[in-house]
Amino acid sequence: MNLETELRALTIDWPQTPHLELALAHRRRRRWPIAVAIAVAAIAAALAVPESRGAILRFFHLGGATIQVVDTLPHADERPLTAGLGPAISTASAKRVIPRLLLPPIDPSPPIHYTPGRIVSIVFEHAGHPVLLSEFPGGAVYLKKLASGGSQVDPAPVDGAPGLFISGRRHVTFFAGQSPRLAGNVLLWSVGGATYRLEGPNLTRDSAIELAQSLRRG
Amino acid sequence: MEGRPQNERELALRAQRGDARAYEELVRPHQEIAFRVAYVITRNAADAEDATQDGLVKAWRALGRFRTSEPVRPWILQIVANEARNRRRSAGRREQLALRAANVSGEAAPSPEDATLDADERARLLAALEQLPADAREVLACRYLLQLSEEETAAALDVARGTVKSRSARALDRLRETYE
Lengths: 218, 180
Prior knowledge:
The complex is a heterodimer of chains A (218) and B (180).
Chain A: H1 3-9, H2 31-48, E1 56-62, E2 65-70, E3 88-89, H3 91-97, E4 102-103, E5 112-115, E6 119-126, E7 129-137, E8 143-148, E9 151-155, E10 163-168, E11 171-175, E12 181-183, E13 186-191, E14 194-199, H4 205-214, E15 216-217
Parallel strand pairs in A: 2-8
Antiparallel strand pairs in A: 1-2, 3-5, 4-15, 5-6, 6-7, 7-14, 8-11, 9-10, 10-13, 11-12, 13-14
Chain B: H1 8-16, H2 20-27, H3 31-42, H4 45-61, H5 72-91, H6 112-116, H7 119-130, H8 134-145, H9 150-157, H10 161-179
Helix pairs in contact in B: 1-2, 3-4, 3-5, 4-5, 5-9, 8-9, 8-10, 9-10
């Protein structure tokens, strides 16, 4: 038997092929260009008319997130916090995405999920209500939020790191690679090259900051 | 190379129109081979999983550039393998695993040729393969362990088909020196 035949005949113990959750099932590709168009229009408007009170009312950047306050929100679905989080991954795998991984202050830690687009998510219970912790790199825009004039955006530093708290009327969240959804009160902060997001229906600015400060390093 | 499924072009066209379910159906038959190609490159299952996942999402976003007259498998392998190389570059000293021979006495029936190689010979052949430089090891893994076509191997390794031929021949020579 020649070498090529021997190689071809070898049976390799391959690692099991994982179930890959592509999170595309309900995604419509046309929505991203709309979002991008809004973002481009917003940047152009903000640069041309700094005090503009037209379609774009305010504009914030924080780490890998952009927040635009607009007159009219686009359509978005109502979905539970646990929807579309992707498959569970190990803490080691999550740390490869987010080296400065933060975990809930509970033991054992709930499952860590990974969504294409390098977003790590953990849902856990806090004060009797579900909270979604999302973590993503800070270098590019991984998250866009559109808030109407009915939403309030306040500074909310976490341990000295820059942060924003969005409250009031619900806003629309665009995570890269996912369809938009409605979101409630959210704390966003950025530190060490990563951006973090806490979302929960009962979070206040102070309780969200307190919870953020209680997260432990993974 | 395997024959192209008759409905692959139709699925690709639907996916290009934004049908995510058609895209999932289009790539599902190729996920396992894409994962294994990523594993050959990264030599780490977690990195291979991430590379496959992100590669398939990138392929979805780049679907507008895919020519539906072409088979989808080389295109998928090219994008996933590229993602795997990016991860390998950033992996640093992350744990890497050697390929292992399956236990052919288990449930999976070995090929007749495999059955003629005893466990020691299989281990020795794989050990010799592991000693090759990465370029040589990868081309042999793609061509013979994964049984990719030259076209698919060229896509996965991001080289010309002629390079696959010449690199395979040189790699076999080196393997022969070590093994035989």
